[in-house]
């Protein structure tokens, strides 16, 4: 790196969000530095299921982004010159034995491609490992899938080939014209935070309060196995979105690190990657301290029993418990753009749902940064997305 160099953009966070955005900004000719804290990231990208819910748009904005996303993923391996393991799977949304299948199916009619209702026999034909006693039926729809870690790495390598620079370094402080890290101070016209679940704390340490939240997500990862899971399994009645909505009702609770605004939930699911390894999950736990310690033994027992009820053959597989932070917003849309009152400081985070829209939004944001008007980015900008802004005690609008 040239001494005293000033970048156009510093991107903080090397998960799939920061990697995609860095690549798109470099492609537009910007001088970009990507900063990632860990040489071997333990972030949400590393432990993601990698599912691409391109069928799940419910508004004109999200439906358009989902359509753009699936077209983008279909060419991404070729563009990035790396195999991101993009494929299409049958998603099986299990309906518990005590739930009404038709009522559950009706709650999915608002999606761009509503999943099809299956009876117990049809569901077990599609996924023979299912426990038919545990379900009253299931919903199914075609679902995209990538290897998220390989996709992030593909973006980073393409970014470096495009002239971008990357450093493994921890950002300690955000400055008006750059960032201070453990190693040095880097200067830049713009800084953009893509640090997932650590974004809130990083901004708070610089005196900026923002309505970006995080769950502690827990999964079990197995080594490659011979057993074949044919589908991606998730519960039809997902509790995570309700947990996210409930936990953000009182924003003040998030300003102290010892709080647990709502009890933890478990959505029992499983996905098998192309190498035969499985990810079984997931517990979502709302603890306002990003560094809170979680009892891994209790969590693993809870996870195994819950997944085993649906998929008995997976309950006792050899595997390792993992934990990461997953960022989300209070309104289901990502937080994007300059933080009001801090024109050089931007955010691009909160993509817990869905992962699928990251590539088109990264491309659109880079075009927007280069001066091209973009209706979708304009709609999502923090200054236009009032639910993510509030007034501080002095009456000044700050990003919160």
From TrEMBL:
Listed A to Z, the keywords are:
Oxidoreductase
Give all residue intervals belonging to the FAD dependent oxidoreductase domain.
Answer: 8-366
Q: Could you tell me which InterPro entries the record lists for this protein?
A: FAD-dep_OxRdtase, FAD/NAD-bd_sf
Which SUPFAM superfamilies does this chain map to? FAD/NAD(P)-binding domain
Lineage from the top down? Answer: Bacteria, Bacillati, Cyanobacteriota, Cyanophyceae, Nostocales
Query: GO molecular function of the protein, one example?
Result: oxidoreductase activity
This protein's record includes keyword Oxidoreductase: yes
What Gene3D superfamilies does this protein's entry cite? D-Amino Acid Oxidase, subunit A, domain 2, FAD/NAD(P)-binding domain
What cellular component GO annotations does this protein have?
cytoplasm
This protein's name: FAD-binding oxidoreductase
Q: Organism's domain of life?
A: Bacteria
Give yes or no: UniProt keyword Ion transport: no
């Amino acid at each position: 790196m040239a001494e005293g160099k000033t970048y156009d953009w510093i991107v903080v966070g090397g998960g799939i969000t920061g990697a995609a955005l860095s690549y798109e900004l470099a492609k537009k000719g910007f001088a970009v530095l990507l900063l990632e804290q860990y040489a071997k990231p333990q972030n949400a990208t590393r432990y993601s299921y990698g599912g691409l819910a391109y069928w799940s748009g419910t508004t004109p904005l999200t439906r358009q982004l989902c359509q753009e996303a699936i077209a983008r993923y279909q060419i991404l391996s070729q563009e990035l010159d790396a195999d991101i393991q993009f494929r299409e799977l049958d998603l099986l949304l299990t309906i518990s034995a005590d739930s009404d299948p038709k009522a559950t199916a009706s709650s999915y009619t608002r999606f761009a491609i509503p999943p099809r209702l299956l009876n117990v026999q049809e569901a077990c034909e599609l996924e023979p490992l299912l426990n038919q006693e545990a379900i009253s039926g299931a919903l199914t729809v075609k679902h995209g899938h990538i290897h998220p870690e390989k996709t992030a790495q593909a973006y980073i390598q393409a970014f470096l080939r495009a002239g971008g620079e990357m450093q493994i370094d921890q950002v300690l402080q955000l400055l008006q014209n750059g960032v201070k890290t453990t190693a040095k101070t880097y200067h830049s016209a713009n800084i953009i935070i893509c640090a997932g679940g650590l974004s809130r704390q990083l901004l708070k340490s610089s005196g900026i309060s923002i309505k970006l939240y995080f769950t502690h997500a827990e999964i079990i990862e197995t080594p490659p196995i011979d057993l074949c899971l044919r589908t991606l399994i998730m519960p039809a009645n997902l509790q995570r979105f309700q947990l996210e909505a409930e936990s953000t009702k009182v924003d003040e609770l998030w300003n102290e690190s010892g709080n647990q605004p709502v009890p933890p939930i478990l959505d029992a699911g499983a996905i098998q990657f192309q190498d035969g390894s499985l990810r079984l999950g997931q517990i979502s736990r709302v603890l306002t301290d990003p560094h809170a310690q979680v009892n891994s033994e209790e969590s693993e027992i809870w996870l195994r029993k819950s997944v085993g009820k649906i998929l008995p053959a997976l309950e006792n597989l050899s595997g390792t418990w993992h934990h990461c932070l997953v960022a989300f917003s209070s309104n289901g849309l990502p937080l994007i753009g300059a933080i009001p009152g801090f024109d050089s400081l931007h955010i691009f985070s909160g993509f817990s749902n869905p992962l699928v829209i990251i590539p088109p939004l990264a491309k659109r944001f880079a075009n927007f940064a280069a001066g091209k008007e973009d209706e979708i980015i304009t709609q999502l900008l923090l200054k236009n997305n009032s639910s993510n802004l509030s007034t501080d005690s002095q009456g000044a609008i700050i990003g919160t």
